[in-house]
């Protein structure tokens, strides 16, 4: 039997949390009764020798199943039962062989309880670590699948709206970088929620808009869920890319006003381009338009 296999078998018998006193006492009593019965069966062979031999097993069993409480109770009950049933009198004189045996029994039992408790705590910590590792591993696999699904969708949508390979590469790389920046934000926030200022700042950082923003700009530093942060990052990347190609960010005098408010627990994002060329309706609906429509419909 391998060391790992033996450890796993032992972990099955160890409760994940410490047992309460009543339960520990019941386990100790049951273990002592079994040890007493076994010692009684050996009486014809041992006589009054080694009166506490079988009760060590009771201490070990109760210690494993019920922790230090069960082990301590089994040691005390086993000492009393062994002394009364197989010695005949309760004696603790050091000069007496039986008294010395009882003291030795309690000393060894205490050592066993300490060792078993130490081993039990170590195995419990390992159980908790393994359980946490399994949870993290499952979450990691789930996130990887989601990331691959999003990247695949980005590639497919970009391919449909691109007239050439060069156009596809430029669009896809930009969208992938925006998605990557959003993921960095999620990692920094442990995947929970992300501040709106951080989402906007990271999403628009490649466009260097510090001197192109018109006042008022910004908004309350509300926090959005992870999925919403990714969607907003992609949305802002699309808007900024289109503004740089066809809108106000494509001309020197162009400006951008970006602000958001919180209304009825919903974020209202305002994107207004100033000083740009005249706006014309697109001849076809692209990925950016679909993304905007989805964001508005939520």
Structure description:
With 298 residues, the chain is mainly alpha-helical. Helices cover 66% and strands 8% of the residues. The chain contains nine helices and four strands. It has helices at residues 3-13, 21-41, 43-46, 55-86, 97-160, 165-188, 196-204, 226-246, 287-297, and strands at residues 193-195, 223-225, 255-263, 266-274. It has a two-stranded antiparallel ribbon. Helix 7 packs parallel to helix 8 (226-246) and helix 8 crosses helix 9. Mean pLDDT is 79; it is low at 89-95.
Features:
298 residues; 4 strands; mainly alpha; single chain; two-stranded antiparallel sheet; two-stranded antiparallel ribbon
Kindly provide the radius of gyration, computed on alpha-carbon positions and rounded to a whole number of angstroms. Answer: 36 Å
Shape category: rod-shaped
What proportion of the residues form beta strands (DSSP E)?
Answer: 5-15%
Order of helices and strands: HHHHHHEHEHEEH
Average pLDDT: 79
Structural class call reads mainly alpha
In short:
The chain is mainly α and 298 residues long. It contains 9 helices and 4 strands. Strand 3 (255-263) and strand 4 form a beta hairpin.
Topology:
Blueprint: H1 3-13, H2 21-41, H3 43-46, H4 55-86, H5 97-160, H6 165-188, E1 193-195, H7 196-204, E2 223-225, H8 226-246, E3 255-263, E4 266-274, H9 287-297
Antiparallel strand pairs: 1-2, 3-4
């Amino acid at each position: 039997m391998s060391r790992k296999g033996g450890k796993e078998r032992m972990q099955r018998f160890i409760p994940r949390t410490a047992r309460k006193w009543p339960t520990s006492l019941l386990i100790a009593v049951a273990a002592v009764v079994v040890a007493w019965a076994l010692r009684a069966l050996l009486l014809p062979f041992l006589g009054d020798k080694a009166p506490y031999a079988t009760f060590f097993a009771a201490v070990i069993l109760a210690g494993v199943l019920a922790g230090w409480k069960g082990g301590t109770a089994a040691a005390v009950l086993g000492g009393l039962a062994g002394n009364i049933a197989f010695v005949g009198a309760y004696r603790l004189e050091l000069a007496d062989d039986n008294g010395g045996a009882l003291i030795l029994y309690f000393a060894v039992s205490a050592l066993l309880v300490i060792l078993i408790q130490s081993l039990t705590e170590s195995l419990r910590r390992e159980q908790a670590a393994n359980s946490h590792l399994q949870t993290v591993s499952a979450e990691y696999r789930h996130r990887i699948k989601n990331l691959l699904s999003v990247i695949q969708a980005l590639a497919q949508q970009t391919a449909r709206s691109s007239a050439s390979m060069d156009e596809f590469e430029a669009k896809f790389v930009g969208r992938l970088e925006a998605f990557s920046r959003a993921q960095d934000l999620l990692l920094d926030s442990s995947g929970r929620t992300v501040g709106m200022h951080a989402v906007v700042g990271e999403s628009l950082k490649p466009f260097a808009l510090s001197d192109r923003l018109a006042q008022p700009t910004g908004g309350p530093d509300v926090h959005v869920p992870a999925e919403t942060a990714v969607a907003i990052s992609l949305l802002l990347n699309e808007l900024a890319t289109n503004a740089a190609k066809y809108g106000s960010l494509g001309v020197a005098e162009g400006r951008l006003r970006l602000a958001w408010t919180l209304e009825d627990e919903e974020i209202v994002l305002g994107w207004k381009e100033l000083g740009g060329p005249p706006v014309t309706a697109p001849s076809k609906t692209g990925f950016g338009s679909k993304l905007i429509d989805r964001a508005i419909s939520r």
